[in-house]
Amino acid sequence: MAWTAPRTWVAGETVTAALLNTHIRDNLNAIGGAWTTYTPTVNGYPISSTTRARYAECGKWITVQYRAVLSGAVAGSMTCTLPFAPAASYVGGNGGDVHGECLGYDTSTGTYHFGAVISTSASLTTVQFQSNTGANTWANSIPWAWASGDVISFNVAYERS
After folding, report:
1. Which of 16, 62, 128, 146 suits 7 as a labelling partner, its CA being 20 to 30 A distant?
2. Which residues pair with 117 in a beta bridge?
3. Taking CA 75 as the corner, what is the angle to CA 114 and CA 142, rounded to the nearest 5 degrees?
4. Are strands 117-119 and 126-129 parallel, antiparallel or unpaired?
5. Could you give the domains of the chain?
């Protein structure tokens, strides 16, 4: 359920159930409602049917949870779309930061790798998985040779435009 700008009430106005539902009940549901699933567009990696992408809204504040199990090898830089574009305040410099955390898991070695999730300058709805190996983004051999069964997950929170 989406947030609705609260109504400005006027003296003597008749309050109806529909108005109360829209401006009180629905807004309370919007800030504390259930997760909404979405289907992200991914680039550079194949995902299995166990992938989960969902978000929760609190006004313009979006929290995203994503977890993908790879179904094969990676080809090129890895990116994933967010459900909504970030607000302009999250854009700056080289695409701007989107606040969050990212995790990669290599099933062959049991290695975890952490990185930052950022918006790209090409599309404000796309996030990249950053590497601490000196490379800008995770790719087919960064930080390891990705394979079927490896896992990518991230949590981000940002203000939508």
Report:
1. 62
2. 129
3. 30
4. antiparallel
5. 36-159 (2.60.90)
Phi then psi for residue 26, to 5 deg, are -65, -35
Q: In tens digits, what is the pLDDT along the chain, a chain of 161 residues?
A: 677 888 898 999 999 999 999 888 888 877 777 899 999 988 888 988 888 999 988 878 889 999 999 999 888 888 888 898 887 766 544 445 556 788 889 998 887 777 766 655 545 577 777 766 655 677 888 888 889 999 999 988 888 88
Distance from the Cα of residue 36 to its chain's centroid: 12
One-letter-per-residue 3-state SS of the chain: CCCCCCCCCCCCCCCCHHHHHHHHHHHHHHHHCCCEECCCCEECCCECCCCEEEEEEECCEEEEEEEEEECCCCCCCCEEECCCCECHHHCCCCCCECCEEEEEEECCCCEEEEECEEECCCCCCEEEECCCCCCCCCECCECCCCCCCCEEEEEEEEEEC
- The residue assigned the tokens 């995770």 is 138
Residues 117 and 100 sit within 8 Å (Cβ to Cβ): yes
